[in-house]
Amino acid sequence: MSNYPRDEFDAIEEHSARHGVHRSSLDPQRRSLMPLMVVGVVALCVGLLAFFIMPKFFTTTTTPPVAEVTQSSTAAPSTTAAPATPSAAPTTAPVETPTPTPTPEPTPTAVVDKTVPVAIYNAAGVSGLAATYAGRVQADGWMVSQSANWAGQPQATSVIFYSDVEQKGNAEALSALLGIPTLLETPELGVPLAVVLGPGA
Does 66 fall in a domain? Predict the structure, then answer.
């Protein structure tokens, strides 16, 4: 024990926090837990949002439509199916195209030139026969160069002579006019057209 007399500084409360005059008051202060709880609740909410909601915004994978899935599932067996036999393929009968029938070209009509002189000879021995036929020929528009008796070989029938191919059309016209079907080509008479009247004319 100290031998010094007690003073006012020695009277210290039993449960006082003071430890000397130079110490400040160290009264215990009870800290509040409310801010810590608020921070914990906020952190929990942020964590829940990040776990449940944020993946929906950043997800890029999409599920295929049901139609596509069913189509792929139904199309798969066709790859392993056996190829169809030729008998199963539909056969189409070949279409027959009608062949066009060629239209017959009209035969060119021979040009009849009635200005070509015609000689008429009587080989039948009938008097005036050459003049009679000459009148018929002239009446049809032909030009008669001469009408006389035949001085050549005897003829078994009536004949129309023409000098070349160019006179064949004129000879045919005279044949139709006079009814004489026999036509002969010869340049020996020296005239383009000659009608020789034989027996029976």
Answer: no
